[in-house]
Design brief:
Layout: H1 4-11, E1 17-23, H2 26-35, E2 86-96, E3 107-122, E4 125-138, E5 141-153, E6 174-178, H3 182-191, H4 202-207, H5 218-232, E7 238-245, E8 255-261, E9 267-273, E10 279-287
Antiparallel strand pairs: 1-3, 2-5, 2-7, 3-4, 4-5, 6-8, 7-10, 8-9, 9-10
Helix pairs in contact: 2-3
């Protein structure tokens, strides 16, 4: 168990920040378009970057000797060194500046700040939540703001019982089915330089972390939900998006994406559903006027 001194040491990281610089190049845009099975025009200088595709940039480039047993960077660096083995991207909230989108061919910066570190003890053991705020800017100023929720969990106990699932809504207005094969997961891991072994190492994820199959990336599911909306409303732009991962999605069965507009036609409910009908991710999106 983490002691009060351990928790205080982790909370001392609150307020830390770092700034990264990157160029919004065309190659990752072409690659993600192909991975999502889109028929987009080839990106050129000035092409507007779709929402959530900024996750292709500002990637961590840790040396191989700095990688831990799970494929992530070893504890420390910018994020606090939480001594719990299981780490996941639990959700986030994003707001875009519609008058100032990121575009291919421009330079950008991302300033990240650790807002809070919170310790809780739940039914399945200890949890540490880290909230990070990102501000992404180009030469014209702020382009988007993102709050990123990271959760650290204790190792799975042999008798651990997962939380009771929630049934997915049955009132979708539009849907899409996804086959999460090894290739899709590999391509997204490669595009985001994500070495976390739960997404590609079947022996590790089943024998060490105790899951039944490879885990579909939470950010990939969020990106697919936004992509589902883009297919329904071509040319529309988002002003806000919020998502929360509720249940892991595994590559052992198909899963589906769903959406439904609110009465005003500007806000949408979006969600992911696994093959058993359980809700895996819920999200909301608001279109720019």
């Amino acid at each position: 168990m983490l002691t009060p001194d351990d928790i205080a040491a982790l909370q001392a990281w609150q307020g830390r920040s770092e700034t990264l610089h990157d160029d919004i190049t065309a190659a990752p845009v072409r690659a993600l378009s192909a991975t999502l099975d889109r028929d987009d025009a080839a990106p050129a200088a000035g092409t507007r970057l779709p929402e959530l595709w900024h996750w292709l940039y500002f990637l961590p480039h840790h040396r191989q000797s700095e990688i831990g047993a799970d494929g992530h960077a070893k504890r420390g660096g910018f994020l606090p060194p939480v001594p719990l083995p299981r780490r996941m991207w639990a959700g986030g909230r994003l707001a875009w500046e519609p008058a100032n989108p990121l575009r291919v061919g421009e330079a950008a910066t991302r300033t990240s700040t650790i807002v809070s570190v919170t310790h809780k003890v739940g039914r399945t053991g200890e949890l540490v939540f880290v909230l990070v705020r990102h501000e992404v800017c180009n030469a014209r100023g702020l382009a988007l703001t993102e709050e990123h929720d990271i959760v650290y969990r204790a190792a799975a106990a042999p008798d651990e019982v997962p939380p009771s699932p929630t049934s997915a809504p049955g009132d979708a207005a539009f849907s899409r089915e996804i086959v999460p094969d090894d290739v899709l997961l590999f391509r997204y891991s490669a595009l985001t330089f994500n070495g976390h072994r739960i997404h590609y190492d079947r022996r590790y994820v089943t024998e060490v972390e105790g899951y039944p199959g490879l885990i579909v990336h939470g950010p990939l599911i969020a990106t697919l939900l936004v992509d589902l909306l883009r297919r329904q409303r071509p040319g529309a732009t988002l002003s806000r998006f919020e998502f929360r991962a509720l249940r892991p999605t595994f590559d052992i069965a198909r899963f589906s994406l769903h959406g439904r507009p609110d009465a005003d036609g500007k806000a949408f409910r979006l969600w992911g559903e696994d093959a058993d009908g359980w809700l895996t991710m819920q999200a909301s999106a608001t279109l720019h006027d």
